[in-house]
Amino acid sequence: MKVKTTMNSRSWGRILVGFMLAFTILGWVYTPHDPNQISIAKRFQPPSGEHPLGTDHFGRDVLSRILWGARISLAVGVAAVCLGAAAGVALGLAAGFFGGWWDELLMRLSTSLQALPSILLALLFAAIWSPGVPVVVWGIALGNIPSFLRVTRNQVLSIKQRPYVEAARALGAGDLRIMLRHILPNLRGALLVQLSVSLAGAILAEASLSYLGVGIQPPDPSWGRMLREAQPYGSLAPWLVLAPGLFIALAVIGFNLLGDNWILGRERVAKGE
Fold first, then answer.
1. Which of 24, 176, 190, 206 is the most buried (most CB within 10 A)?
2. What per-residue confidence (pLDDT) applies to 145?
3. How many Å apart are CA 223 and CA 221, to the nearest integer?
4. In this structure, what CATH number is given to the domain that contains residue 203?
């Protein structure tokens, strides 16, 4: 029964993430209508054959805006996490491999940075610069550095003591070669788990920032921005709230399930199952 539950959970994670990726790709090549086309005569139309998810307060097709917004929401999340992961992994490799004062300094900086959530960092950047995509990307990226740094450092502390690393050092391999050729590839499992969890958090953070008005700016749609615009009309046209809210929830749940299943898979491998 336990195996069956795990397999079902794994399948759901893959299905949801695959659906979101397919939905995002579809948004690049096709939308039923122009997502920014205003038609006052079509305001607040309920879901129908012409508009499967209805229209908003400007008469814009909600499905087209959801498709277009998927490109922005997921692209911003992926870009921010990749930037944070690149910096965090590089710093974590250095901290775990060299240790000493370098490790102490990076861990102190990581703790300080971890005290500032991504949303707070983005709000700070928005106060200095104008709101928009760069503010969201850099805010979320900086917020993800401590997580990747700590995961990488903890793994390196264990891996660098293994016999194959000692053998490479005895054969004359330099520090950089050992880190890139013998340690980094063995971090893949832990980093994939962290990447999946961070992507879920990044999508939610982007939606929150766009909802607060410091993220994606109109007329470009994003799921968080659509929620903000729909808030005054929730009772009149509930589909305006349900559509973007549902897609945000599906994306976050999908990536979290995928990360949980990778954790279960690593635990089973460690136990020799």
1. 206
2. 92
3. 7
4. 1.10.3720.10
Tokens 């971090």 belong to which residue? Answer: 187
Query: Quick one: which of 6, 143, 226 has its CA closest to 135?
Result: 143
Token pair for 224? 């968080």
User: pTM of the predicted model, to two decimals?
Assistant: 0.84
What's the average pLDDT block by block, 10 residues per block, for the chain (273 residues)? Answer: 49 84 87 90 91 93 92 88 94 88 88 81 81 86 92 90 82 81 86 90 89 83 90 90 92 86 56 50
Amino acid at 163: P
At residue 259, the pLDDT reads 77
Q: Measured between alpha carbons, how far is 135 from 120 in angstroms, rounded to an integer?
A: 11
Rounded to an integer, what distance in angstroms lies between the CA atom of residue 183 and that of residue 175? 10
215 and 137 Cβ atoms separated by less than 8 Å: no
**pLDDT at position 164:** 82
Q: Where in the sequence is the domain holding 193, given as residue range(s)?
A: 2-270
Q: Helix or strand or coil: residue 211?
A: helix
Q: Which residues of 167-180 are buried (b: 16+ CB within 10 A; e: fewer)?
A: ebeeeeeeeeebbe
**Angle at CA of residue 165, ends 164 and 169, nearest 5°:** 115
Query: Do residues 47 and 61 touch, judged by C-beta distance below 8 A?
Result: no
